């Protein structure tokens, strides 16, 4: 029966995001400090080709056969010298599907004191690190800016062939950009989106 033959194609298939180019993972490092629970951020080195000087969480591309958590721990070790054994993985928060085709998976982890003692930024990738108390995000709403994402349609698009006219109502979207400023460091972009989700999750659980 044809249905039985096709069942082989999807029986053990793990659903993924269509048009995904690759997956990345970042560690969202929680640290106990004198100011209470804090998040650890890094500033990308000015010499990097992609997003130099921007604030981010440690992370990178997920390698073949690697889980998001394994990737996040490996990248954190490579970038900050924090060993995987010094990080307790708490779970994964909501992932981001970027229009460029990147799926970004945040992994939440608690960095033990020995991990912070071992922290040594790899200068080829990381300019500096800094900590922000979770209380700051709870007390300080982000500045919110918005921009429109509109399609750019090629002049030779075959409207007639697909059965629509040049006045076709192409979908567009509005994107909110959250921005926090902490001690001269702007936290924005996907890093701010992840941070906002983490804080809202904590608030929903009434941890604070």
Report, as a whole number of angstroms, the end-to-end distance: 58 Å
CATH class: Alpha Beta
Structural class computed from helices and strand pairing = alpha+beta
Largest sheet: 8 strands, mixed
CATH architecture: Alpha-Beta Complex
- Kindly report the average pLDDT value: 92
Strand content: 25-35%
Task: Set out the fold topology.
Layout: H1 2-10, E1 22-33, E2 36-44, E3 55-56, E4 59-61, H2 68-80, E5 87-92, E6 96-97, E7 102-111, H3 113-117, E8 126-133, H4 134-139, E9 143-149, H5 159-162, E10 173-182, E11 185-187, H6 189-204
Parallel strand pairs: 1-7
Antiparallel strand pairs: 1-2, 1-4, 2-3, 2-8, 5-7, 6-7, 9-10, 10-11
Question: Mind explaining what this structure looks like?
Answer:
This protein is α+β, with helices and mostly antiparallel strands and 208 residues long. The chain has one domain (14-204): Nucleoside Triphosphate Pyrophosphohydrolase. Helices cover 25% and strands 35% of the residues. Strands 1, 2, 3, 4, 5, 6, 7 and 8 form an 8-stranded mixed beta sheet that branches. Strands 9-10-11 form a 3-stranded antiparallel beta sheet. The chain is globular and about 65 Å long.
């Amino acid at each position: 029966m044809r249905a039985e033959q096709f069942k082989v194609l999807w029986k053990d298939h793990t659903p993924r995001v269509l048009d995904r180019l690759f997956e990345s993972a970042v560690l969202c490092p929680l640290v106990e400090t004198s100011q209470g629970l804090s998040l650890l951020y890094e500033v990308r080195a000015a010499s990097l080709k992609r997003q130099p000087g921007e604030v981010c969480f440690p992370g990178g591309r997920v390698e073949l056969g690697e889980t998001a958590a394994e990737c996040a721990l490996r990248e954190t070790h490579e970038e900050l010298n924090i060993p995987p054994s010094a990080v307790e993985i708490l779970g994964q928060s909501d992932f981001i599907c970027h229009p460029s085709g990147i799926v970004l998976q945040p992994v939440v982890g608690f960095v033990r004191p020995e991990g912070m003692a071992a922290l040594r930024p790899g200068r080829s990738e990381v300019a500096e690190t800094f900590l922000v108390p979770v209380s700051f995000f709870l007390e300080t709403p982000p500045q919110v800016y918005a921009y429109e994402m509109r399609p750019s349609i090629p002049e030779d698009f075959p409207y007639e062939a697909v059965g629509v006219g040049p006045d076709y109502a192409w979908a567009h979207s509005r994107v909110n950009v959250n921005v926090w400023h902490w001690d001269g460091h702007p936290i924005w972009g996907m890093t701010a989106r992840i941070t906002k989700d983490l804080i809202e999750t904590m608030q929903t659980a009434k941890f604070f």
